[in-house]
Amino acid sequence: MNADASSLPEFTATHDPSAEAEAAVTLELSPAPDTTVTTAPTEDLDLAQRVATLQQQEQALRQEIATLQATQAKLLQEQTAQMQANLGRLIQEGVKELEQRKQTLQIAVEQLERRQERIRAEMRTTFAGVSQDLAIRVQSFKDYLVGSLQDLVSTAEQLELAQSNPPPGEAHCQTRNTSVL
Hints:
The structure is a single chain. The chain has four helices and no strands. It is an all-alpha fold. The longest helix has 129 residues, at 36-164. Helices cover 87% and strands 0% of the residues. It starts with a helix and ends with a helix.
């Protein structure tokens, strides 16, 4: 059995006692070490090693996937927090800008209201002044017309008095003059 044990290949991968037992049983049953029956345990050992290696790779990949998922979740949280902070900053800047615009518009509205009041006061003053001036002029013109009409009436009365006492030769002319008028 020692001779058979030295002919067994060495394994550097994982230690599997059931595989060694199978190899030992197969070697004891086989007549010669170079027959096809002895190569089957070597292939089984290779497959077992390969399966073990693939299982280790699978486990490593699963760990890597879990690590990547954790990293992704962490990055997503960081990005979300950063985006929320940026959005909050943008909103505050927008609100500040709108407040400045509001103040500017309020100042402009106040200025326009004051200007409107000045214009209204000026219109009242100007209109009242113009109206008063116009009323004074109309009254003066009225006084002038009344005075002129009174002068005309007095002149007409004087003419009538003068015509009602006509000299003897002018009576005939007066009738003609009155008919022309």
